[in-house]
Each structure stands twice: as C-alpha cells, then as structure tokens.
Amino acid sequence: MNIHELPFTYLSQEDLLDAGCFDMRMAIEVAEKTMLDFEDHRILFPEKIVQIFDQASQDRINCLPATLLDDKVCGMKWVSVFPRNPKKYNVQNLSAVFVLSEIEKGFPIALMEGTLASNIRVAAVGAIAAKHLAREDSESIGFIGSGEQAKMHLLSMKTVRPSLKECRIAAKTVEEEQQFIDELSPLLTDMTFVAAKTHARAAMDGADILVTATSAQAPLLKAEWMKKGAFYSHIGGWEDEYAVAQQCDKIVCDDWETVTHRGQTLSRMYAEGLLSHDDIHADLHELVSGHKAGRESNDERIYFNAIGLAYIDVAIALAMFKRAKAANIGTELDLQEKMVFEHKDILSKIRM
Ligand SMILES: NC(=O)c1ccc[n+]([C@@H]2O[C@H](COP(=O)([O-])OP(=O)(O)OC[C@H]3O[C@@H](n4cnc5c(N)ncnc54)[C@H](O)[C@@H]3O)[C@@H](O)[C@H]2O)c1
C-alpha cells in the first residue's frame, strides 16, 4: 500500500441493516454514554450550518458536525429536509449521509448512509426519556402522526417499556394509519393495534405514553386527554395546545437552551413569555447522570421535548461503522491511491 493511499469505507443503508445496525439497544446505550461524555466536556459540538432554499416549504440542507474526543473521531451529518417530497414526488422528505474522520492524521474513514442512524437517534433519545420519565407499568401508547419517527418510536419505547400492550394510532389519513399497522404489527406480535381513523382523541385519550410526531403546525394534542401519570414525548414542531405543558408536573428537554431558539410548542410559549427557565426541570443528560431526578411519583404528568442533538447522531453512526467493520461489511474505496505528482502518467492528465 502506498503511504499516500487514503482508504475509507462506504456503507449503504443495506450494508448497515445486514451488519445488524438497526439495533435500538445499541443506539440507546451509545446515546446514554455520549450524553455523559457531553456533560464531561468530552464532545466538541459547534453550531450547525443551515441553508434554506425555499422559505415557504423550508426545503433545506443542514451541516451538523461534532467531535467525540475519547473516540478520536470527528463526524458530520449532512441532512436534507425537503417537506414537499412526499406529496410532490411520493418520496421521503429526509435523506442524510455521514462523513467520519479520525483526528490523528485527520483522514476520512467512512462515508455512510445517514437516514437510518438519524431516525434511530430520535427514537433512542425518546426511549431514554421514557426510561426515566414514563411509568414502569405503562401498557398503552398513543400516537398522532404515523411516519418514520412514529414507527421508530414505537420500537424504541417497546424496548424500554416491554409492558406496552396496546398501540393506538392517528394520522392525517386512514391509509397512513393502516400502513403503520401493516408495517409494525408483524414486528410486535404481542401488541394490539388500533387505528383511530384520523381522530386524535381516540388515539391519545387516557394513554400511558403519548407521542406526537407530525408534520403539522397546530395544537393537535389536547390537555384533557393526558391523564395523571402519563408521559408525553413531543417530536415535531407545534403539535399540542399550551395547556398540555402548563398542566405537567415536570418538563424535560434534550437541550432547553436550544429549544428556546426554535419553533416548537415550548419555544413558542417561551417567546410569548408563558414559560421560563425555571419551569424546566432538567435536560435529559442530567437524568442519565443522576444529577436530577426522573419520575418521582405515579401521578406525575411529564412532558419531554427533543430538538435533536447531532453529536448523538455522530456517536451512533460511529457505533454502526464499527459494527459493520467487525462484520466485514461495506465497500472499501480509495479517496486517492497516491499524491497527484506521484502518478507516472500525470503529464497526460494535466490541462493548462
Ligand atoms: N425532534 C427531533 O429530533 C426530530 C428529528 C427528526 C424529525 N423531527 C420531526 O418529526 C416530525 C415527524 O417526522 P417524520 O419523518 O415522521 O415525518 P413523516 O412525514 O414521515 O410523517 C408525518 C406524519 O404527520 C402526520 N400528520 C400531519 N398533519 C397531521 C394532522 N393534522 N393530524 C394528524 N396527523 C398529521 C401525517 O399523517 C404523517 O403520518 C417532523 O415534524 C420532523 O421535522 C424531529
């Protein structure tokens, strides 16, 4: 091998699936460890870069870097969000790739499909919140929204709350609800699935765990449907009426400071002066490290809002890369075989 050769591994989504990387437990463990590293200042996490191509639709590509100092790996998620895609082209709205580089010489080590890691991260973070904040005997889970995030969340919530027996699902159309049930029920054969026929109340009223994961911007979830002792995981933008948060005994975020700058329900309430720093019980890493308490009684209503922390995505992508390498899965490629002027035929390739 030429000393100037720069090899790296390419991993498609199929490679990752073949290598067993669709692993909720792995993602949850990695996310927990990475949150503790974050608390220990072992993560570099600069601001993301956002490029919006259409203000009305919010078509955008974001660049989210992070460095895991203990792993000596710097990574970047390059993620496209094109909300019109499903309606306009009948294709997914989100696509992503990760680049991972080692930080000894600074060379790239992997280029990977990133939608899987990204979606698993959202669900893993929701599951960690549920582990600390949902009742241990939770049996029913209700969803508004039946897309990719909802599907991943059901799998992750079931991982940390195996007592879940019933899943009720409300989406914008009955077809989407049925698709959710057709795809998820074969994976969770001990659960009963109920289509709410687009009626959010039927999905949410009285559920032990409530999840909203929609592309809507409206107060879909009503406070009166959230019973005492329930845990609510809020994933999308504005999805619940303000009274939901106002009646909760605890509000936990993945990162409250970031929430204050965004457009979610809690962000809106903060901007309107209806919520302050003092109303926030904790950021999730403080529950993981034990610095703050999780659920303290069976009656508490608890609200969790995740905005998305890309350093966790990078850590999950790295764990997937390691697992794929160990299984000898992926395509080894060269970024370069040698330095430009080492090519013997370089004369024939230069244009001046
Ligand atoms: N918090 C995070 O870390 C994070 C990460 C990724 C995505 N998200 C957000 O999660 C949300 C869901 O993402 P997704 O990939 O699952 O989207 P998706 O397009 O796959 O699904 C959206 C769902 O919302 C439902 N919906 C839309 N309007 C509705 C309404 N009025 N009533 C009921 N259901 C309605 C649709 O029926 C669909 O089932 C998006 O807002 C996305 O931006 C959050």
What can you tell me about this protein's structure?
The chain has 352 residues and is of the alpha/beta class. It contains 13 helices and 16 strands. The strands form 2 sheets. Strands 1, 2, 3, 4, 5, 6, 7 and 16 form an 8-stranded mixed sheet that branches. Helix 4 (115-133) crosses helix 12. The longest helix has 19 residues, at 115-133. The two termini are 31 Å apart. The model has no long low-confidence stretch (mean pLDDT 96).
What would you call the shape? globular
Ligand inventory reads: nicotinamide-adenine-dinucleotide
Q: What's the β-strand tally?
A: 16
Strand content: 15-25%
**Averaging pLDDT over every residue, what do you get?**
96
Query: Helix-strand pattern, N to C?
Result: EHHEEEEHEEHEHEHEHEEHEHHEHEHEH
CATH architectural grouping of the largest domain? 3-Layer(aba) Sandwich
Determine the structural class based on helices, strands and strand pairing: alpha/beta
Report the helical percentage: 25-40%
Give the total of domains: 2
Give the oligomeric state. single chain
Q: Could you name the CATH class of the largest domain?
A: Alpha Beta
